[in-house]
Design goal:
3 strands; Citrate Synthase, domain 1; 2-methylcitrate synthase activity; Citrate_synth-like_sm_a-sub; binds carboxymethyl coenzyme *A; transferase; Cytochrome p450-Terp, domain 2; mainly alpha; Citrate synthase
Length: 375
Amino acid sequence: MTDPDIHKGLAGVVVDTTTISSVNPQTNSLLYRGYPVQELAAHCSFEEVAYLLWHGELPTADELVAFEALERSLRTLDDRTRRAIDDVPVTAHPMDALRTAVSQLGGLDTTLQQPDGILDPALNDGRAVYLLAQLPSIVAYIQRRGRGLEPVEPRDDLDFSRNFLWMTFGELPDDVVVDAFRVSLVLYAEHSFNASTFTARVIASTLSDVYSAVTGAIGALKGPLHGGANEAVMHAFAEIGSADNAETWLDTALAEKRKIMGFGHRVYKNGDSRVPTMRSALERLVEHYDRADMLALYDALENAMAARKNIKPNLDYPSGPAYSLMGFDTETFTPLFAAARITGWTAHIFEQYAANSLIRPLSQYTGPEERHLER
Ligand code: CMC
C-alpha cells in the first residue's frame, strides 16, 4: 500500500509560490503574469512575451525598441560554439547538441568568476537575453548541419520569429507561416512548475549558475513524457500513414500498452488550454500548404483517442504537425520548444534566486534493515 505521505511524481504537491504564470485546469486557462495566453498569442510578438515573463509587465514602446535592439545584437554564434556543436556526432539527437552548446556558453562566460558573478541580477538579465538570442542560432545551425548545409548568418533587420526561420531555411516563408511559428513560441514560452522548469529551479536552488540550470532543463525537456512528445507525434503519424488507419493503429498501440504521444497532461484533465489556439494555427498552415490529409489524420486520431480513452491532446499534438508543415526536421521540434521555453526557464531561475531555499526533499527508505559486515 502506498504511504499517504509519499507523493510519487510530486503529483498534486504545491512546492512554492510563483508570480510568473498560473495554470488553472478548472477554468482551462493559462495566464502569463495575469494575461491569458490566448490574448498574448493573438496580439503580441514573442519578444514582448519574453519581456513580460522577465519583467512582470509588457514593455512600453521605448522599452521594446531597446529590448529588440539588444536581442538582435546578440545573435551571432561564437566560432567556439560552432566547434562545440561540430564535436557532437551529426547522428546525435539535436537536443544533445543543444545541451552541449548551452553548457559551453557557460564555460565561455568569464563574468561568472566575478565576485557575486553567478547571482548578480544585472548580469543575469543580460545572460537571459543572450540565451534568448543564441538559441535560435544554435538550433538553426544544428538543423542545417544535419542536412549538410552551410550556416546562414542572422539578420538584424528581422524580428525574432522571422530571423529564426531565415537562419533555418535561408529564405523567408509567407506571413501565415511566420505567424503560426510566433504563436507556437508564445504558447511554449511558459507553463509553471513543469518538469524542465522544476529541474532548472532545483539547480538554481543550489546557487549554481543560469547556464547550468538551463543545461539541466534541456535534459529534462528532451524526454518523451515532456518536450520530446512533439517529435514523437510525428513518428506516430508516420506509422499511421493516413486517417483511415488511425483507429486500427490506436487499438494496436493501446493493446501494447503504449502511451500515445501528444495526449494527456499531469495538470489538465479536461483538455490543454493552449490546444485550441495552436490548432487554429495548424488549420491555417494546412490551408496554406494544401494538406487537408494532415488535418484528417490529426482529427481521426484525436477522435479515436477520445472514444477509446477519453484523453485529450496537449500542446505537443498540434505543434508537431505544424512544425512538420513548416519544414523543420522532426528531431528539431523539441529544440524549438527549448528556444521558446528559455524565457520561462530563466524567469523561474531568477525567481528562485530572489527567494531561495535549497530544494531538497526526503525519501522513505524501503531497503534492507541495518546489517553489519561479517568481517
Ligand atoms: N496514452 C495512453 N494512455 C494515457 C496517456 C497517453 N498519452 N496519458 C495518460 N494515459 C493513461 C495512463 O495510462 C493511465 O491509465 P491507467 O490509470 O489505466 O494506468 C491514466 O491515463 C493516467 O495517466 P498517468 O500517466 O498516471 O497521468 P500522468 O499525469 O502521470 O501523466 C503524462 C501525464 C503527460 C506523462 C501522460 O499523459 C503521457 O505520458 N502522455 C504522453 C506524453 C506526452 O504527450 N507528453 C507531453 C505532456 S504536455 C506538454 C509537454 O510538457 O511537452
